[in-house]
UniProtKB/TrEMBL annotation:
Assigned protein family: Belongs to the ABC transporter superfamily. Spermidine/putrescine importer (TC 3.A.1.11.1) family.
Subunit field text: The complex is composed of two ATP-binding proteins (PotA), two transmembrane proteins (PotB and PotC) and a solute-binding protein (PotD).
Segments of skewed composition (Basic and acidic residues): 7-21
Free-text function comment from the UniProt entry: Part of the ABC transporter complex PotABCD involved in spermidine/putrescine import. Responsible for energy coupling to the transport system.
Organism classification: Bacteria, Bacillati, Actinomycetota, Actinomycetes, Streptosporangiales
Protein's recorded name: Spermidine/putrescine import ATP-binding protein PotA
Gene that specifies this protein: potA
Domain ABC transporter stretches: 26-260
Length: 397
């Protein structure tokens, strides 16, 4: 708090987002937020610990109402935490108003000024800070170049497509070179095709400017595709933080496993402790046994997941060292790149179903659901197989 007055836009470090001491660009320490309206209290954020590295593309992923927007507003200073500390580049900014924090926010609705041209929208903040006119012109030109909107400088936002408006909002938020940029569902207003195109665009812009981005989304595909690291949030808490592949392949708990991609959740009991390769034998509820890496002792209850694309499905018994189960196809759904099979595992009394994704390398013959000769169809008896490294025990030991 004591250091807040020495800060002005002109004294910010030459390399935005980076801090000489190697401090995180953004750090939340035991941050909590309870909203009070009259006698009602809603706890939106319970206790958040988070450190975003300078220059990182960080995604905050979670379902509606889990506290994502609140977290961004706490970082930006539009809300103050009920408890805990917010740091930007190592400096405690708790209690510092938004306009004195070195971050900008892109809101979901972009909040562009409709009566101003694109260039004036982008220049707005610089004019307010009385940046010299020649410099404004240069910086607005550079940033419009970066977001590929040079030709639209004199148009008004209402005449632009959703994707173009998104770029204006991005340009306006980046033009004063903030230490970090916070984006709340930045692609939420776009149609699915444009959403995909803009993923690559946003990534490119972030790489070129090197500014720390925090991107809030409830779209797991978006978070996996865009983030250097992501945090999965539920009920005002972070459940897991890590690189996309880490979170997808090694989910921490049932919630993360189910929210980040499709997951088969299985429950069983350890029957034999880990062998020399680290694999214990787990008896699934209802009968079949599979291997999974865990140090849990025999008798321990474990939850495990196997991702649908790791499972091979075949009509004949596979000739591999993989774990295998028998089952019956209950349903098939053609999804374009893959077909999704729902298979009832034999010996579980119908209690255990596994979802399997199989790539559609072939083309279904007209009027059939078989994507190639011999591919499974409803009612078929099949084998399911996966190498034991793909059976991931949740909440490991
Ligand atoms: N200003 C407020 N006053 C009272 N309660 C609030 C306020 N803002 C948010 N909340 C509540 O806090 C919780 C978290 O809201 P928040 O907007 O942070 O969620 P979110 O993850 O951004 O959700 P969404 O994906 O729907 O945008 C919700 O229960 C919400 O109703
Ligand atoms: Mg929100």
């Amino acid at each position: 708090m004591a250091s807040t007055t020495e800060r002005s836009p002109r004294t910010r470090p030459p390399d935005p987002g980076r801090d000489a001491d190697g401090a995180p660009a953004i750090a939340l320490e035991h941050v909590a937020k309870t909203y009070r309206t009259g006698r009602r209290a809603v706890t939106a954020v319970r206790s958040l610990d988070l450190a975003v590295t300078p220059g990182e593309y960080f995604a905050l992923l979670g379902p509606s109402g889990c506290g994502k927007t609140t977290t961004l507003r706490l970082i930006a200073g539009f809300e103050e935490p009920t408890a805990g500390t917010v740091r930007l580049a190592g400096r405690d900014v708790t209690g510092v108003p938004p306009n004195r924090r070195d971050v900008n926010t892109v809101f979901q609705n972009y909040a562009l000024f409709p009566h101003m041209t694109v260039a004036d929208n982008v220049a707005f903040g610089l004019r307010r800070r009385r940046v010299p006119t020649a410099e404004i012109r240069r910086r607005v030109g550079d940033i419009l170049d970066l977001v590929e909107l040079t030709g639209a400088a004199d148009r008004r936002p209402a005449r632009l497509s959703g994707g173009q408006q998104q770029r204006v909002a991005l340009a306006r938020a980046l033009v004063n070179r903030p230490g970090a940029l916070l984006l709340d569902e930045p692609l939420g207003a776009l149609d699915p095709v444009l959403r995909h195109t803009m993923r690559a665009e946003l990534k490119r812009v972030q790489r070129e400017v090197g500014v720390t981005f925090v991107h809030v989304t409830h779209d797991q595909g978006e978070a996996l595709a865009m983030a250097d690291r992501l945090a999965v949030m539920a009920d005002g808490e972070l459940r897991q933080t890590g690189a996309p592949a880490e979170v997808y392949e090694r989910p921490a708990d049932r919630f993360v496993a189910g929210f980040v991609g499709a997951a088969n959740l299985l429950t069983g009991t350890v029957r034999a402790a880990a062998d020399a390769d680290g694999y214990a034998l787990v008896g699934l509820d209802g009968g079949p046994q599979v291997r999974a890496a865990t140090t849990a002792a025999p008798g321990t209850r474990v939850d495990l997941t196997v991702r649908p694309e790791k499972i091979r499905i075949s009509a004949v018994e596979p000739d591999t060292a993989a774990d295998r189960l028998r089952g019956t196809v209950r349903d098939t759904v053609y999804q374009g790149p893959v077909t999704q099979y729902t298979v009832v595992v034999a010996g579980t009394g119908g209690a255990t179903e596994l979802v399997v994704h199989r790539q559609n390398a072939g083309v279904p013959a007209a009027g059939t659901e078989r994507t190639e000769p011999g591919s499974p169809a409803r009612g078929d008896e099949v084998w399911l197989a996966w190498p034991p490294r793909h059976a991931h025990v949740l909440g490991r030991p």
